[in-house]
């Protein structure tokens, strides 16, 4: 097996801001595996609060090059690499390669339901309330908006967004930017405006405060839910588990996380880092099982991969076979 690994950068239409970081490009680690003339590809994105970059992910892959080129399995890959973007890129490339060599689809090999078209959230990034409202107005006909909060004037922002976009479903994501006191004070307004999900309001180290908070809006764990091992910690605090392949360790880790969360009676949300259609393709397989889907990252790119996943006003269509899994 021949390995090619590289860090790649894709320009965004505009900066993508959350409560604790701003992206100016999508930086990803791309893995290609070639065997008998057949190529499988996968992508992983770095997690900034882990101190990762596309280059450090590529270095992790390079550190196990000999094992990869000797023909390691997905299970062996998970034993050599920590859960994260590097394992995600390698794991998804192995799924793609296996599917192409077998002449089957990845969902068949993974014993998952066939992927369907999905309504994905369109993310409104953290800016001034006027700028966020302008973003939302362009998406007023989309089925779902995900609003990044945790700034200095969240009330003005969410009111302005709902004024210009009265019809879409709305979720909000504070990216750990709130306190439990602010959450208590803010929840009635979110309820009034029809917000249906609150994503990661508190830092993970403050999760215990959620035990006594009886939210009338479901709360989703993102930074607090990275791998299947985190599920037990969520019980009694969160109602929804957020699955990101870049954190879980690829499709294999995401399936494990999904199954454990379902066993724990948690709702599911699939989400993404800032990546390309190559990163969204395997995540679509998880999206079929999720109440909430947030895989809009390619819509922020000036130029996506060749053979990108088509989106129409937030509607995520079928993955082209030439991209992944064909």
List keywords for this structure.
single chain; 326 residues; alpha/beta; 8-stranded parallel sheet; 3-stranded antiparallel sheet
Short description:
The protein has 326 residues and is of the alpha/beta class. It has 12 helices and 14 strands.
Describe the structure.
By secondary structure, the chain is of the alpha/beta class. 34% of the residues lie in helices and 23% in strands. It has twelve helices and 14 strands. The chain has helices spanning 54-63, 65-69, 74-80, 85-102, 106-109, 129-138, 154-164, 180-192, 231-234, 245-248, 250-263, 277-287, and strands at residues 2-18, 21-35, 38-44, 118-119, 122-124, 144-148, 169-173, 195-199, 219-221, 240-243, 267-270, 292-293, 311-312, 315-316. It has an eight-stranded parallel sheet with strand order 5-6-7-8-9-10-11-12. Helix 7 (154-164) links the parallel strand 6 (144-148) and strand 7. Helix 1 (54-63) packs across helix 4, helix 4 (85-102) crosses helix 11 and helix 6 runs parallel beside helix 7 (154-164). It is globular. The model has no long low-confidence stretch (mean pLDDT 96).
